[in-house]
Structure formats: structure tokens, C-alpha cells
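USER: I would love a firmer grasp of how sequence relates to backbone shape in proteins. This is the protein in question:
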Amino acid sequence: MKLSDFNFDLPDELIAVRPATPRSSARLLVAQGGDIHDAQVSDLVNWLRAGDRLVLNDTRVIPARLSGLRHRDSTQGPVAAKIEATLLEPQADAGVWSALVKPLKKLRMGEEIVFSDDLRATLEEITDGLAYLRFNLSGDDFDAALNTAGAMPLPPYIAAKRVADAQDNIDYQTVWAKNSGAVAAPTASLHFDAELLEALREMGVEFTYVTLHVGAGTFLPVKTDDISEHKMHSEWGQVSAQAAAEIAQTKAVGGRVIPVGTTALRLIETAGQGGAIKPWEGDTDIFITPGFQFNVADALMTNFHLPRSTLMMLVSALMGQETIRTIYSHAINENYRFFSYGDASLLIPARKSDETGRI
């Protein structure tokens, strides 16, 4: 398969820069095989049924974008220059983070960047275009200083249109966010609010929480024309024994397991690669493309994805390439809003419908 197989033309005005308010008022495209219905996220109560299990990613986005200054003596005297850093992943050595730094070429080894009165870091290493920064704080002290100095790491296609602000601290975080470590949100989950969760519980929908810390690699473009040559980024995740047991029980009684977001789907399929889901923890670089055998997920709730992206390949694997082309053509024609702050889709392969055709 070629990268061009997953391309489409998207009008720039359909890229959402703010989410719908309230969260559950976002539009929802419901697709069962080739059948498409237009709804709202709040209408999930009409499309799900008792015994369905939603799998939710409980990662918490950290304010990973930092602006700082490096100070240096020059022939004209002391000078300061701006440095931008986006934290990616903590290292085993406490206080050290990998980061994307701009302009990286201007930094010298051992040079200090001051991000706030409390937070500063020195450059320890550069490997494959990533900077490794040693901060002056770690643990809870680091978290507190980062919460003060950092900003939400909005996706590049939003950051290019506007800067992050205080509202993003709320908007770019799920209502159940718990385990800090992500530098991008599990965006399909942003559509849920307390009222919708309660309505779904009352009708018998069940919930399981897993953790996958979404990395900045989710936004990296695919650069190889032959997609089999693409090297997938890795992200840390965990499926607890309780989560695995809950999902296995739902499968055993014929219920549907529906991950909310591609991150939750990638994680449970990693944990289910032996055929049945088991507890799992580690780094996953699973790359789901057409032909993939799904062992756990029966459907998927997800936002609309970038052309030529690994996530377009994932939804094509679930629904079929021609079906996804039809779904995305409908979404564009009906002015659905795209990407992280955009609208949602509920994708259920035709084989997962019941005998009445209701999904």
C-alpha cells in the first residue's frame, strides 16, 4: 500500500481551533459499514446499548510547552535569546527529559535555559534531533513548577493558528484525566462530560480505564511512500489486571468493546496480540494498517484524522479503505469539524451489527 492511498483534500476552514461547547454538543457521524447517520455526541445514548463497554484512556496531559531564555556573554556584553521547548518523555535519570527545542542549533552543551524563577534546565545531550534537558527540580517540585511555567502543547495545526491560553488548560484535558504523562490529548475523549457519562451508566453502558501516555510522535508525518517501511513511534501504556478482566468478561458474554480514541484501541490491541486480552505494561509501537486482525475492539469512537497519517491507516483497517473514503467524503460535504478539537465519529464494522441492523 502506498501513502497516497490515504490522502484526501481537506478545506482549511474545517480544521477546528476551539472545541464545541458544551463538550457533548459536538457532532457525531455514526457509521455501520456503508450506512452513515448524522447525530450529536449526546446522542450516544441512542446508539449504544446495555452491556457495551467503553474503554477510556485516563492519561493526563502535562503543560509540556515551555518558553525560556538562554543567557550568554558576547563581545557586546550579556545577551539573552528565546528558547522554545516541548517536553516529550521523562528519562530514567530523575530530572532529565527528552524535548523538541527551537532553535536547537543555537544551544551549547551545558548551557542553561531559564523558564521561570523556579524552573531551569541545562542541555546534556543531543541525539537524533532531540535535546535531553536536565532540570533543577524533580518529582512533585518539578510538577508544581511546570504547571506554573508551562502551556498546553496544542497540536501543530492549531498552534499555527493561535497560541494556547488558559481555556486550553480545561478544553485539552479529559474529565477523567488521572495519570500525568501525555503531551497530546486522547482527543475523542474530550467530547464526554459528566452528564453524558451518567446517562450512559444509567442505560447500562460500562467503563474500563487504561493508560497510554500520548506522545508528540502522534503528529509526525509518514515520510515513506511504501507504508510498510514506516517506523512507528512508541508510547508507554498499561492495561491493568482489572481492566483486562473487565474487557475479557464483556467479550465472553457477547458484549461490544468500544475504545474511545485510537490510543485506547492501539493499547488494547497490543495487550490482545496473543488472541485474548491480558494485563500488559510497556512501550507499544503497534502499527495498524489494512489487513490487521482485530482481537479486542469491536468498534471505535474517534475524531477525524489528518490525511496521509497513521491514524487514517488505522480507521481504514477497521472499516475498509473504500468505506472510510465514503465516510470522510460525507464528513467534508456536511462540514464536520476536523482534528483534535473537531467532531467525532462512531465507527462500527458491518459485521458487528445485530440481526436488526441496529448498531
Summary: The longest strand covers residues 77-90.
